[in-house]
């Protein structure tokens, strides 16, 4: 094992594996410590289209494509009295698609890719303590191997905390993770065979079905014929109903029986796995970076799964983090300036989705009103309709567009002030679930766009000649490629409109 890697990554999920692979490909020495032995189970199977371009840059694309996951080309939302048919090919780009994945396999493929790209990957390694110098910069970690008592110490120049919900820095050391009181929800799920998709679904689409009591179901097709079917509802309401029904399983099945649209999708289907549950999972860290460290993926933040943002935010944050770290380590930009870019782009991506999810949970007045608000969250692709703007955001492509320079607005002091206001608001005790949620303070953040003439207004991520940050204007080839996923794997069914 290398004695002093330049970068130490804690955690081998999509965020950690992607950071490690990208930095290793950029010539940076990387060691990754993962607490578990992969493959291991994880929920969060539905990917956004944006993930594919990051997989390509990290070197993982061919490995993932060869596995044969279910192709996904959009979603159908049966949301209250509306039906949203979100066909990515028709609304965004003929080549916009992604996968529905088995996360145990998908995450394992990404971790093996990190090793293939040159990162040193050590599994079953648990970080016990982070050591800091006199300037509060992390310089080493103490860790143990499974089944051993020996405490090992690894030094580094830079730390990436991708430790998931355990939160080595944000949760355990700094204690700066804030729960979103408005999203204290529980997810209850299982797996089924013999189910079907809504008849108007694009290929492999996620189906989302809301319920009168203020919750919603996800319904996701997987390549092996199984469907992941989960119910999300406020923790308080769930606790009341579980007491009435006697168990989470009984409540889950009764809610399915009382949701006619889901009954149609599960007609003749058989449940093939035990019930699982997770709760109170929406949060954000006060800081996403600092001297000598960044926090990415679930270690930094997580949002209610309504728009399937988990892997997107993990890999997008990993991409912007790796570009910023590599640039700073090469001495091409000061570390504070490079990390300011990471902080801004990552926080902006998170807050954009926070706004959209919040709007869906508030008292709903129809898709036209909702889509029109979504269009205010981006100024790129000015010719898009409101529905196209929403679809581009929920496919993750707006974030890729902004960080690549197609639409970039920065100003770390200003955005930090606005972000604090948004987080304070989202943590307010008087937010109610699915109704009477006044989001006007949040929308005012986005209706007051930052100017482009700031010190970092023209900064963007580039992969040529090496991963990093640049102010060089984009080439025509970059403009064509950066915000568009690569072509589907050989043998994938044709696009259907």
In total, the number of domains comes to 2
Q: What is the fold named in CATH at topology level of the largest domain? A: FAD/NAD(P)-binding domain
The helix content is 25-40%
Tell me the span between the first and last alpha carbons.
Answer: 52 Å
Total of helices: 17
Percent of residues in β-strands: 15-25%
Give the CATH superfamily of the largest domain: FAD/NAD(P)-binding domain
The helix/strand class is alpha+beta
Low-confidence stretches: 408-455, 482-488, 490-497
CATH class of the largest domain: Alpha Beta
Average pLDDT works out at: 84
Q: What is the multimeric organization of the chains shown?
A: single chain
Note the overall shape.
Answer: globular
Number of DSSP-assigned strands: 24
Summarize the main sheet: 8 strands, mixed
Biased composition (Pro residues): 486-497
Family: Belongs to the flavin-dependent halogenase family. Bacterial tryptophan halogenase subfamily.
Region (Disordered): 473-497
GO molecular function: monooxygenase activity
What does this structure look like?
The chain is of the alpha+beta class. 36% of the residues lie in helices and 22% in strands. The protein contains 17 helices and 24 strands. Strands 4, 5, 13, 14, 15, 16, 17 and 18 form an 8-stranded mixed β-sheet that branches. Helix 11 (335-361) packs parallel to helix 15. The chain is globular, with a radius of gyration of 22 Å. It starts with 6 loop residues before the first strand and ends in a 16-residue tail after the last helix. The model is unreliable at 408-455, 482-488 and 490-497 (pLDDT under 50). Residues 486-497 have a biased composition (Pro residues). Belongs to the flavin-dependent halogenase family. Bacterial tryptophan halogenase subfamily. Keywords: Monooxygenase, Oxidoreductase.
